[in-house]
Structures are given as structure tokens and as C-alpha cells.
Amino acid sequence: MRMKSVIAAAAVVLAFGIGGANAQQVEKKDLKLAVGGKPLLYYLPLTVAERLGYFKEAGLNVEINDFGGGAKSLQALVGGSADIVTGAFDHTVQMQAKGQPITAVALLGRYPGIVLAAVNKAGTITSIKELKGKKIGVTAPGSSTNFMVNYLLTQHGMTPEDVSFIGVGGGPSAVAAVKRGEIDAIANLDPVISQLEADGDVTTIADTRTEKGTLDTYGGPYPAAVLYTTPAFIKENPKTTQALVDVFVRTLKWLDQAKTEDVLKVLPPEYFLGNQTLYAQAFEHSKPTYSPDGRFSQEGAEAAYKVLKAFDKAVAATDIDLSKTYTNAYVEDSLKRIK
């Protein structure tokens, strides 16, 4: 770890009182976790942690509430009905601009895994500019799928107001919206996208399931799914926070080594959308998107800030302190103990 990162981690240790979660019992055992589209591969680490029993082994009772999209899970945190969220890193930047800071404590996805695709029923759409005036399905307005499209529109001389966004969720409802011809394009994730591709329903315009696709879309690395919460929660529950990060670091290490068949055995059948073979292929495409260790990079945070400034007026008008949007301190502590 570079000296700058060591100093930053030390500062967080002093501020939040971090120590090994096993040193004492956690402060808060019963937790409510919000997520926006749990069956999506974007959030696979959450389901794997749950199904492998890692939360219980850490002494935590975690109630998972699944919402239609990341914006709604963020609202649950802000409204006080959730303690923690697995959601998009983007929200940590946006909320600081609104004066309601949240902090990401573990990186789950190092590439977004979001795909923007044209719906073939809607006619031929081969470029971003041809989306003007079209209806675009996203998991939920204000979610990371929405942000990706917003950014691409601005990069092609348009604004988000040039299209209509429709929330279609991240599962069978998204597939149905395409097949019924309710939308002209879709920004979504696997396994939804792989299902639509296999059925010949969509044509890809932009794909961030790979490092190359992420660089082509955003111009740099881009943090995706993270575990985030409020600074107040972290300060009041440092050992609980550490226990949660331990769970996800352990899960990421398991995923990094797991074979496809190992993952399939862990998941509930309904995740496969009726086609386990296709889901297996989707997982193999998505596996590189997961962080191997949970660490954030300053470069990734800067990329997210640049993207959000392009279309979010509040972010553009605020001097964002990126050091407050994430911390690696808990992950570094986990990595000392979890091999």
C-alpha cells in the first residue's frame, strides 16, 4: 500500500475506532440491508455471502430488502429504513453534493457490467445519437443504469431530457418490457442482457462487462457495486462495520477462486430465469467485473466524479472531497486476517 493510502487508512482508524471485528462483540447484531435488484449479477457477492452463511458466522442477523433499483435502496438508507446498502459508488458522490454524505467501505465490482442495447423490435438503432426521442428502460430512474445512459448522451451532444427513461427493474420484468415492445432501448445487467441477447431481442451499443468496454465507455476504471452506509453508522458501529466488510472480503476471495458450477450450486433456481446454462455463461462473462479484494482506487473515484459532473448539476457545482466517499481502512484490516 502506498504511503498516502497508509496515512488515509490511519486517519480513518482514529476517526472510527477500527479494530478486528472479532476483538469484541459487534455493536449492532440485527441489520437491515437494502439492495436494488438482488438477482442481478452486479450484486452476486451479496447473494453468495447470504447463501454461504457468512453473515451468521460473523454474528450478524441481516434482513435483506430488495428494491426495484439502486435509487430506491439509497432512499431507504436516507429515510432510515435501512442501515447499509449494496449499491452504486456513484451515490456516494451524489449524496455529498446534496449535503448528505455516505461512505463506501468495500468495493464489490471493479467494472459496472452495464450494457446499453437497442431493442430490435423498435427498428434499427446503431448509435447513441439515434436514441433521441426514444424510450429507454433502466432498472430505476436515478440508478447506475440511468447514469450510464446520461453520460453517453452528454458525450454525444445531448442531454438526459432528450430521451424518456422508464423503470423496468432488473429481472423478468425487464425481459418482459423488451419482448412486449414497451421500450426502444435498455440499459441493464446480466443475466437480463444475456437472456435478451440469446433470444435475439437486442443489439448492443455499449458494454461495460469487460475492462476494455469500461475504458471505451468511461475513459478509465470505474467503481461499480459497493457496500455503503452513513458516517454516523460507521462511527457508532465500527466493529459491526468491520464484521460486514470481513463478510464481503471473504466472499470476494471465494468468488475469485470459485468455479462456475460452485456458484450455480449456491444460488436459488429462480435466479436462472429458466435457463441455467445461459446463466452460467452470463456469470463467466461477468466474473472479471468483481473486485478480487474489495479495495478502492483514487483513479476509479476520480472517474466516477468526472462522469457525474457531465450531467449532474449539483455535482458539477460542488467541490467534492473524494477521500470522504470511500475508505480502504476496513478492507485493509480484513485482508490482514482473511487469506
UniProtKB/TrEMBL annotation:
Keywords: Signal. Residues 32-275 form the Solute-binding protein family 3/N-terminal domain. Its main location: periplasm. GO terms for cellular component: periplasmic space. It is found in: Periplasm. InterPro entries: Solute-binding_3/MltF_N (IPR001638), SsuA/THI5 (IPR015168). Residues 1-23 form the signal peptide. It comes from the Bacteria. One of its GO terms (biological process) is alkanesulfonate transmembrane transport. Belongs to the bacterial solute-binding protein SsuA/TauA family. This is ABC transporter substrate-binding protein. The lineage of its organism: Bacteria, Pseudomonadati, Pseudomonadota, Alphaproteobacteria, Rhodospirillales.
